[in-house]
Amino acid sequence: MTPTRIIAVRHGETAWNVDTRIQGQLDIGLNEKGQWQAERVGHALAEETFVRVYSSDLMRAHHTALAIARHNKQLKDREVHLNPGLRERGFGKFEGHTYAAIEEQWPDESRRWRQREPDFAPAGGESPVQVMDRVERTITALAAPHSGEQIVVVAHGGVMDMLYRLATRQTVRAARTWELGNTAINRLLWTPEGLTLVGWSDTRHLDETALDEFGT
Asked: 112-117 long-range CB contacts below 8 Å, 24 or more apart?
């Protein structure tokens, strides 16, 4: 079958990103810079041809996706289609705490988290293996109906991380050597055999030198 082309975008910045506070599946909105980033990525993708915009139902992703849909000049279906399968990893009791606070309150669990133990999940949260399985199932369900077309998927750092691992056939324990920047543009292909990486972490639209090009 003809591959489905995917543009995958992480949401814009939030105040909790700046504070290194774990958001997980808490519904935190974009900060001022994040709103600017959402507008910039919307302008950057304005001339792209894609048939549908899918997003996590958490507002930091949803609001980023709305900017992408609003600015595109060819999109017929301007609705942003929300899917909870694109949510950030559930971090359970870690959510709302900074990295430093987690290290202080739960040093052993913090160590297991940072070592990426495949089956470790904070109380009430998800393990890396569970997140990878969820992301793989979700992206398959979204991409399969769009053979030969291009779609946009707006989600979170943890989802982007798993998409990269799936596309490059890396395990959840592999050390992360790739960027997961806010509103970075990432490109993949999907077929029933899995994902293939095309391009990763394009942030040229966030450069000050790109201001005149987008008129913002």
From this structure: 116/172, 116/173, 117/173
Q: How many CA atoms lie within 13 A of 177 on its CB side?
A: 5
Structure tokens at 35: 């709103």
Selecting among 11, 43, 97, 156, the annotated active-site residue is: 11
- pLDDT value at position 209? 58
Segment holding 55, helix H or strand E: strand 52-55
- Check if 88 is active-site: yes
Average pLDDT over all residues of the chain? 95
Q: Read off φ and ψ for residue 5, nearest 5 degrees.
A: -90, 135
Burial of residue 27 (CB within 10 Å: 0-12, 13-18, 19+) is exposed
Q: Which one from 39, 88, 95, 109 is the annotated catalytic residue? A: 88
pTM over 0.90: yes
For 131-178, how does the pLDDT look when each residue is reduced to its tens digit (9 = 90+)? 999 999 999 999 999 999 999 999 999 999 999 999 999 999 999 999
Domain 4-214 has CATH 3.40.50.1240: yes
Is 11 a catalytic site residue? Answer: yes
